[in-house]
Amino acid sequence: MRSEPARPLWRGRTLAVIGIIAFAFSLRSAVASLSPLIDHISDDFAMPAALIGLIGTAPPVCYAVFGILTPLFERRLGLERLTVLAIAIVAVGTVLRGFSADAVALLLATALIFAAVGVGNILLPPLVRKYFPDRIGLMTTLYSTTMAVATLTPPLLAVPVADAADWRISLGMWAVFAAVALIPWIAMLVRQRAATPDEGIEPPNPRVFGRMWRLPLAWALAIGFMVAGTLAYTSFAWLPQILVDIAGVTPAAAGALLALFAGMGLPASLLVPLLVTRYRATAVLFGVAVTTGFVGIGGLLLAPQAAPVLWVGLLGLAPLLFPLTLVLLGLRARTHEGSVALSGFVQSIGYGIVALFPIGIGLLHDATGSWTAPLLVLAVVVAAAIPAGIVVARPITIEDQYERRHGAW
Predict the structure, then answer these.
(1) Labelling 63: which of 11, 112, 296, 325 has CA 20 to 30 A away?
(2) pLDDT at 216
(3) Taking Cα atoms as reference points, which of 172, 235, 234 lies closest to residue 30?
(4) Is CATH 3.40.50.2300 correct for 208-406?
């Protein structure tokens, strides 16, 4: 693969830097601001358990569906226009959610937000690939870390704001961040309209997304993404209960351990993209993810009460495959259309599989009356990263792989 000569991050790209970071923050803050307020919302209108379950499982489903649709939208609108549309929908959906009169309205507004976030998830890697081909690792670090911070911030502020004002204000205030994120992208659209088209961007090819199904590299990246998402979503759904049942910790301690699990993603988002781009540490990082995943799950299976903090901390390192996959979505494609198609394919397949696990793990636990079988299933999921890592570690792009197997791209 050819490496782009590096130039100063801000030179001629200030709006793009601000726009990508603000976009990433608005996507995650809108998603993470709801769940802490369920009790407050229930004081105003009924929140059936089934509806809460739908809200909990909706994100990966929406991300999968719109992962498939986003390349189609992008071919018609272009990256920047679709980015503006996605941010605007997040802002509108966040405001509507704050005005919800009943549970159905809340669900519909939340689904609207998740749909736009699903589009945004796909767009971020191609935006980095387009504007920062020489700084893919650094920009992936910045936006993935921003996403981690944006995931942690709303739960800290949601309840205090709701107590001081109202849950509607606590939910709706995150629309401000989406509105701010619109500014740099609208400015770039205005600038582009007056400028000549970028000759470095290939014309859209409607067959590119279909080619992903025939490429081992695309499937390997999807598997890596799936492993990270499965561990994360399953842990957020069930890890506290697992720890209470088998490790003998209190519910409060289980909540703190879940925070530890989530917090392990912050150093990973900071370090992983730079380790990949500077030191080509893809194979090593896959090995770290697999090893820590196996040891964490093995500890919970064999000696859960011995060192629950250690087991959860190690398990929390395994989803480092998430920022690893994000940076590889930019590195393993050499064209604009290839990057969009690869991002859409990997995230739609990955999230589509991930959506099955939180429910499936719960059903398996109910059927067996034990957490042994669910934990063994998670170990099998981690094992799937081994062959995926072997494929992904090879420094080849999807375009190169397609040309070797099927002819001209």
Answers:
(1) 296
(2) 97
(3) 172
(4) no
pTM of the model: 0.84
CATH fit for domain 14-194, picks 1.20.1250.20, 2.60.40.420, 3.40.640.10, 1.10.10.200? 1.20.1250.20
- pLDDT, tens digit, for every residue of 270-295? 899 999 998 999 999 999 999 999 99
Cβ atoms of residues 174 and 72 within 8 Å: no
User: Is residue 129 over pLDDT 80?
Assistant: yes
Give dist(CA 145, CA 33) in Å, integer: 18
Q: For the chain, first and last CA: distance in Å? A: 16
Could you state, in order of their start, the residue ranges of all structural domains in the chain?
A: 14-194, 208-406
- The burial class, CB within 10 Å (0-12 / 13-18 / 19+), for 76 is exposed
